[in-house]
Specification:
The chain is α/β, with parallel strands linked by helices and about 220 residues long. The chain contains six helices and eight strands. Strand 6, helix 3 (about 135-145) and strand 7 form a beta-alpha-beta unit. It starts with about 25 loop residues before the first strand and ends in a 15-residue tail after the last helix. InterPro entries: Nucleoside_phosphorylase_d, Nucleoside_phosphorylase_sf.
Length: about 220
């Protein structure tokens, strides 16, 4: 989870979501319990693991699965992303000297599946930061091409190693929609409703991924602003 101007630091306590056995399909990771509960509403067969704020409970992740998918809320860096939009990461970037870009698995295919379900989905680079992003730093990251910031995806991708990774973030704040504003309550509730709708698309995407059909629509321009 990351709001570009702040974030809650709790929410996963009491959730025993560890997946110990190897999984044939993907595993969805959420920072907070509220995000996990929302995502679960749309899933029928995919487990959700609460990894905590800044992925501090990443040890809950399974040793083997088909893919790791980070899902939750995020803060827009790009003014073209509005609250309620969904950003599917085409790559996950880390910030700092050791940061590197990790390509995501079939992002345009996933965006197309979300669009099929009536969601406003776009594709672009996501950056994981280690602190709240404000003002000048937000503008700098945007100038470098990142479209959204969170605090977990790069940490999960690092742990994933050779496993395919994906990140799906619902925008709740951004340059024109500050976090610390009365409207955040409304935007948060709306974002939770969007998050609860991403499950069917995730499961269709994962079925294609497992079958090796992820290249079927990667040449399209779906979701690009």
């Amino acid at each position: 989870m990351n709001f570009t101007e702040g974030a809650g630091a709790a929410g996963g306590a009491g959730w025993d979501d560890a997946v110990d056995a190897p999984m044939l399909g993907p595993v969805v990771c959420a920072a907070l319990g509220m995000e996990a509960r929302a995502v679960r509403r749309g899933l029928t067969r995919t487990p959700v693991v609460v990894v905590g704020y800044r992925a501090r409970r990443a040890d809950r992740l399974p040793a083997a699965c088909a893919a790791l998918v980070v899902a939750g809320f995020g803060g827009a860096l790009d003014e073209r992303l509005r609250p309620g939009d969904v950003l599917v990461a085409e790559e996950i970037r880390g910030v700092g000297a050791g940061g590197k870009a990790v390509p995501c698995a079939a992002p345009r295919l996933l965006a197309e599946e979300l669009i099929r379900d009536g969601l406003s989905a776009q594709v672009g680079p996501l950056v994981t930061t280690d602190r709240v992003v404000r003002g000048a730093e937000r503008a700098l990251l945007a100038a470098q091409g990142a479209r959204l910031a969170d605090m977990e995806s790069a940490l999960v991708a690092e742990r994933a190693g050779p496993l395919p990774v994906a990140a799906v973030r619902v925008v709740v704040d951004g340059p024109r929609h500050p976090l610390w504003h009365p409207g955040i309550v409304r935007r948060g509730l709306a974002g939770r409703r969007v998050l609860a709708r991403i499950g069917p698309a995730l499961e269709r995407w994962s079925a294609l991924l497992v079958r090796g059909e992820e290249g079927t629509s990667e040449g399209s321009a779906a979701g690009r602003a």
